[in-house]
Write a structure and sequence with these properties.
By secondary structure, the protein is α/β, with parallel strands linked by helices. The chain contains six helices and ten strands; from the N terminus they run E-E-E-H-E-H-E-H-E-E-E-H-E-E-H-H. A five-stranded mixed sheet has the order 3-2-1-4-5, sandwiched between helices. Strands 8-7-6-9-10 form a five-stranded mixed sheet, with helices on one face.
Length: 247
């Protein structure tokens, strides 16, 4: 087995954990965020210091790859890459929606064998990032952005019990009222829940390219600066550069 640093920053929650031989030996989380720019570096430094104080060498870094918050994912991914480069260890990237399924599978024994899991991350308004998995974490439907209406998941609800969870599910509970729809509160992507997925990839040596990999944003980042303002700014910069070259 191995020692893995786990970093999760895809939503407003910032969390870091360290596992050794498949067990969590360090866990720190901030649920009051988003405070990632402040908290992530502190948590990682404390986690590495903890491992070093117990003479535990680091074997890999696992990071939650998204989808989720653009800023949060950038911070977590940059931190993970920095540790990998500095410690010369491999990078493991994990789909955030799969990470969210781990506590549901581990701690909710009441879920039926034929149930489907639908983790949801809030994407503003009535849009969510979601996927559909069976209890073996086999994707039934891939990750995509859904605008949630009453019939959005009807094909699955008509055939199976479906469990919705994550911060995106809170706002759709009143919209989806199918008898097969169940909602699990308080489920967030957390570093401590990355352990089983990261250990499996570690054993299979399924590593991510540290130099060229990027978070899985799902949708392109949209600038808050209106396009016409940005275009005017670029035009002025071009004109100023031309003036300076001619002086």
């Amino acid at each position: 087995m191995s020692c893995i640093l786990h970093i999760e920053t895809s939503t407003k929650v910032c969390s870091v954990a360290v596992s050794q031989d498949g067990a969590c030996i360090y866990d720190q989380a901030d649920l009051e965020g988003p405070n990632h720019a402040v908290k992530c570096g502190v948590f990682v430094d404390e986690a590495l210091s903890f491992a070093e104080s117990h003479a535990i060498p680091l074997d890999a870094v696992a990071v939650s790859e998204g989808p989720g918050s653009y800023t949060g994912l950038r911070i977590g991914y940059s931190m993970a890459k920095g540790v990998c480069f500095g410690r010369n260890v491999p990078l493991i990237s994990l789909p955030t929606l799969e990470v969210m399924c781990v506590p549901v599978l581990l701690y909710h024994e009441e879920i039926e064998d034929d149930a489907l899991l639908v983790p949801m991350i809030d994407a503003r308004r009535m849009e969510v990032y979601s996927a559909v998995y069976d209890r073996a974490l086999k994707p039934i439907r891939g990750i995509q952005a859904d605008i949630v209406e009453a019939d959005t998941y009807r094909e699955y609800l008509d055939a199976h019990p479906v469990y919705f969870f994550g911060d995106g599910s809170d706002k759709v509970q009143q919209v989806i009222q199918h008898p097969n729809a169940h909602f699990l509160p308080g489920i967030h992507p957390m570093a401590k829940n990355m352990l089983p997925l990261a250990e499996r990839k570690m054993m299979r040596e399924e590593f991510t390219d540290v130099a060229y990999s990027e978070p899985f944003y799902l949708k392109e980042w949209a600038s808050s600066v209106p396009s016409q303002v940005g275009a005017a700014f670029l035009k002025k910069k071009t004109q100023d550069s031309a003036i300076h070259r001619n002086e």
